[in-house]
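Supplementary Note 3. Input sequence used for the single-chain structure prediction.
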Amino acid sequence: MVNLNKRILYLDQLRSLAIICVIIGHVCTFFGEGSYVNWMFSTAVISIVRVGVPLFLMVSGALLLNRKLKISVFFKKRARSVVVPFICWAAIYSIFGLLYFSYLPSYEPTLQYFIDVFFGFKGVSSILWFIWFLLGIYLLIPILNSFILDKGFEGANYLLLLIFVFSILFSVGFFTDPLKNLFRSIYYFVNAIAYYILGYYIHNKKFNCSHEKLVVIGFILFIFGALCNFYSMYSIDYGSWSINKLDFFNIFVIFEASGVFLMFRYFNVKMISKKLKPLKETVFAKLVVSYSTCTFGIFFLHWLIVNYMAYNPFFEQFKVGKAYIWIPIFSLAIILLCWAIIWILSKIPILKICSGVK
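The predicted structure, written as C-alpha cells, is reproduced below.
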C-alpha cells in the first residue's frame, strides 16, 4: 500500500501525464496520415504532447539532484529499477518480433537480430533508445549532482544560460552546417542534461512571486511553446502530410515543458474554491500514485501494442478514418489496458520484476 504522505503528489501527476503524452504521441503517428484533416489534427496534438519525455527527465532531475548520493548505492538502485526491467522487456521485444514479423527477412533468430533489438535498432524495439539515453545521463548524474551541491542555484543559472543559448542556436538551424560538428557535439552534451537541471530548478527555487502568478506564467509558457511547436511542424510538413518528429531540445519544447512543470508545481485546488479538499485527501490522488508507479512498465508495454496495431490489417480501416475520433479512443484504450496489465504483473511475485513498479 503506497503511503501518500511520503509522496510528492505533483511529481506523480507529472510522471503520469508524461507517459500519457508519450502514448498519445505514438498513436498520433499511427493515425496522423491519409488526409489533410487527419494530418492537421495529429500535428496539433503532437505539438502539445511532445512534452512527455522532457517531463520524465524533469521529474528525475527534481528527485535526484541536490542530494548527497553515494555512488555505489545510486547505481545499485538504478540497476534494480531500470536495467533489470529493461533486459526483461528487451527479451519480450525479441520474442514478439520473431513471432509477429516472421514474414520479414530481417526478423530471423540470428545473433545480429538479438543485438539490434537490444540496442533499439529494430522497429519493434526502437523505443529502447530512451533507455540508453537515460543510462548515459545516469553516468553523469554523480558529477552533475556534485556540481549542484557545490554551486547551488548559481551553478544552475550558469547551466541554464548555456542550455538556453544552445537551444536557440539549434532552433534557428545553427547546427545544420556540417562544418559545425564540434558545436553540435557540445550542444547535445549540454542539452542532454537540460531537463534535469530545469526540473531541479523549478522544484527547489523560491520565486519572489505568488503561486497564482506562477501558474499563470506557466500557462503562458505552455501555450506559447505549443503554438510555436505547431507552427514549426506545420511549416516543415505542409504538403507532405507526414508527421516529422519535433526535437526534444527545440527552444519551444523547453518553454512548453517548463510551463507545464510550473503549473503543476504551484497549482492548488484552493485557487478554484476554498471549499475543495486537498488533492491528497481524494481518491484521485490514489489513482494518480497508482498510475505513476506503473509508468515505467507502461512505457515498455504500450510500444508492443502500438506495433501490433500499426501492422495489423484490422486497424487499416481506422487509419483513413476520422483522427479526431480514433486518436482519443485508441489512446484511452491503450492507457487503461497498459495500466491494468502492469498493475496485475506487479502483484505477481515472479513477474513483478518486469513491471518496473518499485
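The chain has 15 helices and no strands. The radius of gyration is 21 Å.
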